[in-house]
């Protein structure tokens, strides 16, 4: 049980025991009075286990199937190794009839411990200047644009 569920159980037990009213319990849990009445009914029918969320431990309905994940990882390692995630996504849709987003493909491959063939590199902020043949050959001039260049600006 999570802390929130434990708190629900404690508050509902206090309400049923007569130590707390429905309004006080609603304020303590941040629920409405009607929701507290529903929680009491659930608790009376099934005990503390009835207050636990019913989807706990289940796989989400919209989750990708394990077979698809395995197929994607297998295709990348055997056939399409070296392509980036976006290109691999296009290849899967075109040749394998598997339609996924590039981020899903990336998540699947990283989950299997497969890294992309070529990592992204951050572009440099400025193009480096080519070096002069000798030190001191670089022409530097004053470019203030006003004044006479003797320190008066």
Write the layout of secondary structure elements.
Blueprint: H1 3-17, H2 22-29, H3 33-46, H4 66-78, H5 85-96, H6 102-111
Helix pairs in contact: 1-2, 1-3, 2-3, 5-6
Strand proportion, as a percent range, falls in: under 5%
Number of strands: 0
Low-confidence stretches: none
Overall structural class, as computed from helix and strand content, comes to mainly alpha
The profile of the biggest β sheet is: none
Order of helices and strands: HHHHHH
Average pLDDT, rounded to a whole number, is 86
What's the end-to-end separation, in Å? 73 Å
Helical segment tally?
A: 6
Radius of gyration: 33 Å
Protein name: Transposase
Biased composition (Basic residues): 115-132
Organism: Paenibacillus abyssi
Region (Disordered): 113-134
Characterization of this structure:
This protein has 153 residues and is mainly alpha-helical. It contains six helices and no strands. The chain has helices at residues 3-17, 22-29, 33-46, 66-78, 85-96, 102-111. Helix 1 (3-17) packs antiparallel against helix 2 and helix 5 (85-96) packs across helix 6. The longest helix is centred in the N-terminal third of the chain and has 15 residues, at 3-17. InterPro entries: Homeodomain-like_sf. Pfam families: HTH_29.
Which key features would you list for this structure?
6 helices; Transposase; mainly alpha; 153 residues; Homeodomain-like_sf
Please outline what is shown here.
This is Transposase. The protein has 153 residues and is an all-alpha fold. Helices cover 47% and strands 0% of the residues.
């Amino acid at each position: 049980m999570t802390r929130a569920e434990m708190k629900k159980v404690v508050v509902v037990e206090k309400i049923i025991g007569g130590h707390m009213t429905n309004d006080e319990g609603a304020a303590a849990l941040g629920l409405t009075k009607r929701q507290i009445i529903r929680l009491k009914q659930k608790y009376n029918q099934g005990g503390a286990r009835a207050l636990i969320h019913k989807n706990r431990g289940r796989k989400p309905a919209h989750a990708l199937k394990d077979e698809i994940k395995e197929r994607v990882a297998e295709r990348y390692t055997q056939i399409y190794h070296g392509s980036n995630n976006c290109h691999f996504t296009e290849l899967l849709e075109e040749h394998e009839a598997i339609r996924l987003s590039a981020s899903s493909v990336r998540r699947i491959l990283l989950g299997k411990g497969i890294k992309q063939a070529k990592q992204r590199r951050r572009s440099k902020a400025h193009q480096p200047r080519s070096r002069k043949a000798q030190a001191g050959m670089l022409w530097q001039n004053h470019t203030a644009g006003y004044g006479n260049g003797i320190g008066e600006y």
